[in-house]
Amino acid sequence: MALNPKKHEMPTQAPEVRAHNFKEVALGYPVEIAIEEANRCLNCKNRPCVAGCPVNVDIPGFIMKIKTGDFEGAYQVINETSSLPAVCGRVCPQETQCESKCSMGIRFEPVGIGRLERFVADWHNAHATEKAAAPEPNGHKVAIVGSGPSGLTCAGDLAKKGYSVSVFEALHTAGGVLIYGIPEFRLPKRIVAKEVETLKELGVDIETNVVIGKTLTIDELFEMGYEAVFIGSGAGLPNFMNIPGESLKGVYSANEFLTRSNLMKAYLDDPKTPIQKGGKVAVVGGGNVAMDAARTALRLGAEHVYIVYRRSMDELPARREEVEHAMEEGIDFRLLNNPVEILGYRNPDDPRDPKNGFVTGMRCIRMELGEPDAKGRRRPVPIPGSEFTLDVDTVVIAIGTSPNPLIKNTTAGLEVNSHGGIIVSEDGLTSRKNVYAGGDAVTGAATVISAMGAGKIAAKAIDEALRQ
Amino acid sequence: MYRIVSKQPLNPTVTQMEIEAPLVANKALPGQFIILRVDEEGERIPLTVAGTDKARGTVKIIFQIVGATTELLNHKEAGEFLQDFVGPLGVPTHTEGVRKVCIVGGGVGCAIAMPVAQEFHRLGAEVTSIIGFRSRDLLILEDEFRACSDRLIVMTDDGSYARHGNVTVPLKEMLEAGETFDMIITIGPLIMMKFVTLTAKPFGVPVTVSMNPIMIDGTGMCGGCRLTLIEDGRRVTKFACVDGPDFDGYKVDFDEAMSRGRMYADYERHAYEETCNLFRHA
Predict the structure, then answer these.
(1) Searching chain B, which residue's CA lies closest to the CA of residue A358?
(2) What value does the mean pLDDT take over residues A332-352?
(3) Looking at the domain A141-236+403-467, which fold is it?
(4) Residue A23 · residue A13 · CB < 8 Å
């Protein structure tokens, strides 16, 4: 059988259809395609893909099981290392991780590892009837702060080892950024809910509506008998550009825009929580969050959506697949442009005009790329006199976040860096004994899988510390 | 789920409830707030804590029926449950070093001002309270304020009860008569807080205002509650949920805050009407 040099295409909803619904864009491999794709894996000896995975999933191991049609067996292989395969198969940047190391990739396209992982997880979720069994308790209690990817991973790993684990979540639904941040069309909420249910079957206790740093402090968790704490509280307050007009009505941070749509379900027809729908929308930024916000705005009924980014396509930090999907859907990329002011309506004759204070446009200046900066990225430089106005009704600012101050301010001796990120050692230990941290609370905005990797490392370190 | 322990109307549009939430009751201090959801599909709304009973593990909230969610909340009875109740959020009111304080409350804002007045009274500070309402039938908490104030002045906009006029009138008289305060704390409609601040300004008395912007998570994630402070001529963005809700009144850009507060005015009016219709047909 000739080896297929290309990855099997992921079936997707047609762009013109999906641009108007919140259903998942990528539909997943059917069984036959999954087996064919699995057959592309050479099962090479040095297994470079495993090293490319932040949680070191036994990739050739699970792919071998797919080849033989043992999909549940494949799931069990992944489950040994990853607690959230249905999530990772969808949102991991495999192209820069496992797949970038694939031996097939030297001459051809790499094996579609992410797509196969998703296939296996979806197959398990659709077919498996057995509940995860809670292991024999080992008598130790651990508290996890935050139920996002790092917290859920840490909780899952510890629960599998017999720890009694409580996860404290500030919001009313568990899942963190997987629920409030990543939209339904990229990661259906039922998938996150399913992964959370699996953790509960393992005995993990999830306490929503508890804000650590407010409702309870880290010190109180120790008083309550928890022997170790993992802080996975996530990214914090949204950054703004500090340009005039950012407080006008119709200017959102990406966090607010996405939270309204995802967590509060403002995308429904008659939502309890409002969001500005329709009109023209500019999303400022070039990361995955910017892509999510732009594509959400489109699905909410926007007539035109711009991505405004100050560098060029080469520097755009979003995943290539997300950028391609956004382009197919008709998102208008205005690259090498930087906003300088957001303009609002003001009726000079009537200060009570209800339209006053709403966004009408955004002034931008064209940029060109200058010398590379310290990180090697070419610095964007404004072109004098090139200002112009984009007519828009909504502006969504997706230029990152700064760590949340609540835990730092209420935990004596917890050291943070100049950006406010919690300082940790290689194994996730903070400056406080038995307090570990990981994910965006440490690194600032990063990926789901790197947060999961941090949760995993901390779980291992907590286990070693508490067994002594 | 969080049980409603008691419910009591304070006037035709303002209701008081006690909610069983021991962890919140154990921690909440005057000036802090909670966020609740009435039911599974409900929106999150912030309400200031109006008192706690640590022994019973209850938190008192007082709300005005102004929209869909508060209408829905008002249809819940004692013994029923709220879906979500989280807190305490925000920074407690700063009380240190304040020996003589003037509390200026307006309308349902008095419900937020009351525990602050009580706290100063408990700490032994001299408390002057000025509370204002549109008319007599909207008056709330007069007895409670009397019990914790060395001096209480009640105002109504239409003169239907006590003194006629708004809260800035007696404040101005006192300040002009040479009275001084370590701090004026004002809680109520933005426009009232703006004018209390402007009234105090010529006399140089520090003013603390309690901001209540639109919020979603309330924990420092979404940034929807942002407001602008003007510090040394620079415009600085602050977040009411983690930096506030109390701010230095002299620094707050009230006009911007008022404009932002009306972002969803049309939507809210529509949702409120829909909810009212729902109950009418039920």
Answers:
(1) B263
(2) 95
(3) FAD/NAD(P)-binding domain (3.50.50)
(4) yes
Report the candidate in A82, A77, A88, A159 with the shortest Cα–Cα distance to residue A462: A159
Q: Considering only alpha carbons, which residue of chain B is nearest residue A255? A: B222
Distance, CA of A152 to CA of A146 (rounded, Å): 8
Residues of A in contact with B24 (CB under 8 A): 215
Class of domain A15-127 as given by CATH: mainly alpha
Cα–Cα distance, A453 to A459 (Å, whole number): 10
Dihedral over alpha carbons A197, A427, A62, A200 (to 10 degrees) = -10
User: Domain A239-401 - what CATH class?
Assistant: alpha beta
CB contact A408 to B (< 8 Å): no
CB contacts of B68 in chain A (<8 Å) are: 272
A31 min Cα distance to partner chain B (Å): 37
- Which of A145, A169, A171, A395 is the best substitution to test chain B (most B C-beta atoms within 10 A)? A171
pTM equals 0.92
Backbone phi, then psi, for A360, in 5-degree steps?
A: -120, -20
User: Which residues of chain A are within 8 Å of residue B87 when distances are taken between CB atoms?
Assistant: 211, 214-215
Span A203-250, pLDDT tens digits: 999 999 999 999 999 999 999 999 999 999 998 889 999 999 999 999
The domains of chain B are located at 2-89, 93-203
- What is the CATH code of the structural domain delimited by B93-203? 3.40.50.80
- In terms of CA atoms, which chain B residue is nearest residue A407? B219
Round to whole Å and give the CA distance between A141 and A4: 50
Q: What is the DSSP string of B123-188?
A: TT-EEEEEEEESSGGG---HHHHHHH-SEEEEEETTSSSSEES-THHHHHHHHHTT---SEEEEES
Which residues, including other chains, have CB under 8 Å from residue B158's CB and lie 6 or more apart?
Answer: B134, B135, B164
Do A237 and B27 count as a contact with CB atoms less than 8 A apart? Answer: no
Tokens at A65, concatenated:
């099981």
Please tell me if residue A253 touches chain B, with a CB cutoff of 8 Å.
yes
Q: Say yes or no for a CB contact (<8 Å) between A256 and B220.
A: no
> DSSP state, A304?
E
Average pLDDT of chain B to the nearest whole number: 92
